[in-house]
């Protein structure tokens, strides 16, 4: 029987689902629902040492499936190739995986999972972007074009799934700084982008992050609008953030406060507070906390609840835990 943590959240009741069948867990996986079955695919973990010790990061292509909450995960197939850190979106017509990448390249491919239908590739290779679906249209924003990129993309693309043979459209970019690992959600046809990180080249030539807490909204008829800033930075929070009754829930996310924490193996994890943006009042609030510290993962609606399947629990450390949240 699952344990219920009623004291952690003001708006949610959280319980555990069967853990993913790999004790190391995964970060950057894709998750979605196909014909009522919860699925998790791809992602990465370190197999020998932690990243600061020179550990080896591996990318995976395994597709796991869970048919019912009290069932067991099974291997249901493979992705076309090892992949992680792209966008995955469950639509009324099925589950779509967009972009992503591996250690040496990022991908343009866009495809339905377990469905024979073609979708056009992204205009550019892209990973670490954010995306959502609104009224049958997919929106994708930001990310980085290559694994070694020192600047994020300012791109904002849309694909109308209702139009057979439709191509990606390039839309006006978000007026804020180009970013990666932001959150995106839509309410009443308006697309919202929250937080994330901008990039610049450091003294060693490698990418350094600038932590962002700004928020923006895009309406197809009127364009972009600046929203009130987030109460704190949120990078790589579970995506797309759940939308319930016109409110968007940012479940944790890295605030950058412990980016230089030492010793690294004692890192305390990421913030657990739930930030809520109300599209009607245009105001932020907090809805308690989640009982987990997980980033670079998905938030998937399954059987009327929000599922968070694994992710990065602290730098370099993945988790096989799978959580589900139910509104009180």
UniProtKB/TrEMBL annotation:
InterPro entries: Kelch-typ_b-propeller, NANM. Keywords: Kelch repeat, Repeat. Gene3D superfamilies: Kelch-type beta propeller. This is Galactose oxidase. It comes from Prosthecobacter fluviatilis.
């Amino acid at each position: 029987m699952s344990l219920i943590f009623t004291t952690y959240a003001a708006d949610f009741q959280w319980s555990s689902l069967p853990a993913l069948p790999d004790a190391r867990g995964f970060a950057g996986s894709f998750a979605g629902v196909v014909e009522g079955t919860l699925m998790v695919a791809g992602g990465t973990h370190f197999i020998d040492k932690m990243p600061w010790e020179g550990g080896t990061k591996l990318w995976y292509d395994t597709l796991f499936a869970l048919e019912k909450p009290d069932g067991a995960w099974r291997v249901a197939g493979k992705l076309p190739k090892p992949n992680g850190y792209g966008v995955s979106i469950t639509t009324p017509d099925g589950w779509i995986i967009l972009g992503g990448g591996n250690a040496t390249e990022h991908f343009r491919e866009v495809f339905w999972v377990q469905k024979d239908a073609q979708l056009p590739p992204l205009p550019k290779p892209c990973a670490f972007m954010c995306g959502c679906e609104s009224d049958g249209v997919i929106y994708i924003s930001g990310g980085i074009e290559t694994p070694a990129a020192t600047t994020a993309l300012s791109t904002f693309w849309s694909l109308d799934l209702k139009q057979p043979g439709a191509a990606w459209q390039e839309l006006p970019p978000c007026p804020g700084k180009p970013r990666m690992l932001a959150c995106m959600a839509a309410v009443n046809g308006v697309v919202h982008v929250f937080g994330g990180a901008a990039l610049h080249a450091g003294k060693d030539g490698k990418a350094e992050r600038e932590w962002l807490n700004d928020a923006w909204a895009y309406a197809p008829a009127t364009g972009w609008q600046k929203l009130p800033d987030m109460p704190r930075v949120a990078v790589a929070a579970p995506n797309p953030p759940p939308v319930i009754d016109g409110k968007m829930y940012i479940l944790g996310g890295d605030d950058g406060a412990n980016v230089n924490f030492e010793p690294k193996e004692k890192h305390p994890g990421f913030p657990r507070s739930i930030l809520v943006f109300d599209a009607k009042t245009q105001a932020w609030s907090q809805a308690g906390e989640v009982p987990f510290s997980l980033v670079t993962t998905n938030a998937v609606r399954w059987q009327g609840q929000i599922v968070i399947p694994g992710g990065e629990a602290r730098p370099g450390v993945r988790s096989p835990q799978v959580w589900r949240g139910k509104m009180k």
